[in-house]
Amino acid sequence: MPTPTPTPTPARPPAPSSTLYRSAMGIASAAACLLVWLSLGVGIIGKDGDPANLMYFGVLAIGVVGAVVARFRAPGMARALIATALAQALAAAIALFAGLGLPYSGPAEILLLNGFFIALFGAAAWLFRRAGSRA
Description:
By secondary structure, the chain is mainly α.
């Protein structure tokens, strides 16, 4: 009697929550890399080498510590990225109210660049929240 050969099962697409999680992780990672590159290479506040740009490493530290505390689980990652976005907003507010970066970086430039990163961190937090609710 011949042994039946098992029929191969088609590869299943990733679950929506894992796709959302990977998308959120990609956005957050890209935002962090871009923030480091702009802070070190060009300078978000002022010109290249302005010490005010060191505030952004504090922003990233909040995100990294939050991710580790959350053990990279989606609901905790959402909270960590909300905290990161708030820290980004605080760095922008400090730069604006203290007049940092002048004359190289005006208020509009500081608001635009920081708003871009706040939007990225916020979008990643939203995706993590959706991924956590579907898991």
